């Protein structure tokens, strides 16, 4: 009887030990799912196109990134081009649709948020490990129909909850709180349609829900190029 009891305890304990994870282990498995630390670290610059859909309106964009330092996005919507740039601790925008034809400096809070875009989409947790951002494993929960690990990361621009697929260890979603015109709201992101490019497996579809937008926006990434030559002058604010 005692032997049977020990066997039952062992059978119950093995799954618990197998599925127990730490934040570090989840991040390491996410990086492995991306393609490994060396593959991620080898990316110094990146460019990609975006097709965006917002409430039936189609937009096109192009983004150029110097990893961890600069990012420029040019979006064409309704015949107008909107440019948003962050370069180090400064940023600027040209937005004719907001009534301005010239470049305007971005407020400090927007610069912080935009600086978070100066990385390859999908590598956020690799950045977390590289920058040694504080991270906490909140637990395991459901995101839509998926079992996910909820990781709470304190980044310079704020606290972000990242949701990692418990089966594939790919990034499934994220959630953060931002302040827009004096009001706070949640930005929710979902990642899907993973594709392998030059040894890195990254999401090609991103869905965003933000209080700053009238509806959800779906981004489809294409023509992704790693380590293109980038002219630093494209990040300079026009005079």
Descriptive report:
The protein is of the alpha+beta class and 239 residues long. The chain has one domain (21-235): outer membrane lipoprotein receptor (LolB), chain A. It is 21% helix and 48% strand. It is built from five helices and 13 strands. The chain has helices at residues 2-19, 23-34, 37-41, 108-115, 124-131, and strands at residues 45-54, 57-66, 70-77, 80-87, 90-94, 104-105, 135-143, 146-155, 158-165, 171-180, 183-197, 200-209, 217-226. A 13-stranded antiparallel beta sheet has the order 6-5-4-3-2-1-13-12-11-10-9-8-7, with helices on one face. β11 (183-197) and β12 form a beta hairpin. The protein is globular and about 50 Å long.
Structural class by helix and strand composition: alpha+beta
Rg computed from alpha carbons, rounded to a whole number of angstroms? 20 Å
- Which sequence of SSEs, written as H and E, runs from N to C? HHHEEEEEEHHEEEEEEE
Please give the order of strands in the largest beta sheet.
Answer: 6-5-4-3-2-1-13-12-11-10-9-8-7
- Give the termini distance in whole angstroms: 84 Å
Ranges with pLDDT <50 over ≥5 residues?
Answer: 1-19
Instruction: Give the overall shape.
Output: globular
Q: Major beta sheet, specifics? A: 13 strands, antiparallel
CATH class placement: Mainly Beta
Helix content: 10-25%
Number of helices: 5
Structurally, the number of domains stands at 1
């Amino acid at each position: 009887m005692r032997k049977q009891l020990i066997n039952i305890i062992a059978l119950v304990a093995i799954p618990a030990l197998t599925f127990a994870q730490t934040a570090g282990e989840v991040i390491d498995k996410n990086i492995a799912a991306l393609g490994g630390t060396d593959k991620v670290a080898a990316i110094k610059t990146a460019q990609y196109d975006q097709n965006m859909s917002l409430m039936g309106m189609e937009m096109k964009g192009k983004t150029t990134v110097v990893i961890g330092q600069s990012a420029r996005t040019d979006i064409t919507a309704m015949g107008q081009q909107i440019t948003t740039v962050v370069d180090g601790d400064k940023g600027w925008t040209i937005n004719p649709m907001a009534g301005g034809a010239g470049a305007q400096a971005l407020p400090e809070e927007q610069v912080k948020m935009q600086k978070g875009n100066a990385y390859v989409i999908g590598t956020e947790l690799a950045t977390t490990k590289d920058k040694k951002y504080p991270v906490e494993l909140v637990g395991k929960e459901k995101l839509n129909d998926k079992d996910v690990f909820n990781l709470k990361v304190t980044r310079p621009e704020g606290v972000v909850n990242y949701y990692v697929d418990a089966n594939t260890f790919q990034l499934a979603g994220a959630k953060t709180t931002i302040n827009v015109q004096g009001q706070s709201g949640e930005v929710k992101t979902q990642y899907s349609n993973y594709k392998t490019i030059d040894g890195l497996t990254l999401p090609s579809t991103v869905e965003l829900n933000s209080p700053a937008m009238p509806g959800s926006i779906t981004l489809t990434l294409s023509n992704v190029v790693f380590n293109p030559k980038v002219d630093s002058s494209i990040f300079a604010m026009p005079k």
